[in-house]
Amino acid sequence: MDIPSIKNEEQYEALREKGYSKQKAARIANTPDAGKKGGKAKPYEKWTKDELYEQAKNVGIKGRSKMNKPELIHALRNN
After folding, report:
1. How far is CA 74 from CA 9, 11, 35, in A?
2. Which of 25, 30, 40, 64 lies at a C-alpha separation of 20 to 30 Å from 79?
3. H or E element: which one contains 54?
4. Closest residue by Cα to residue 10 from 40, 24, 39, 30
5. Confidence of residue 1 (pLDDT cuts 50, 70, 90)
6. Pick the residue with more confidence: 32 or 17?
7. What b-and-e string marks burial along 16-38, b requiring 16 or more CB atoms within 10 Å of the CB?
8. Three-state DSSP class for 24?
9. Which residues form the Rho termination factor-like N-terminal domain (predicted)?
10. What pLDDT does residue 37 have?
11. Taking each helix axis from N to C terminus, what angle separates 49-58 and 22-29, rounded to the nearest 10 degrees?
12. Residue ranges of the domains in the chain?
């Protein structure tokens, strides 16, 4: 699987050093609120289906076009 471009390279590298997979580190580093501290990022449940789809696309989740909102959330959390 190809790794998408990373929006927050510093955070990505820190997560990789902690042992996160490339895909999971990319998913976290590419969130719209990447790098915000103190729990400011909104939970996936508050994202629109379109936002979840775009995030799934950014991290290369296959089969995303057939997923509903709960399936997208599950896929993003378990990628």
Report:
1. 24, 22, 22
2. 40
3. helix 49-58
4. 30
5. very low
6. 17
7. eeeebeeebbbbbbbbeebeeee
8. helix
9. 50-76
10. 59
11. 130
12. 9-77
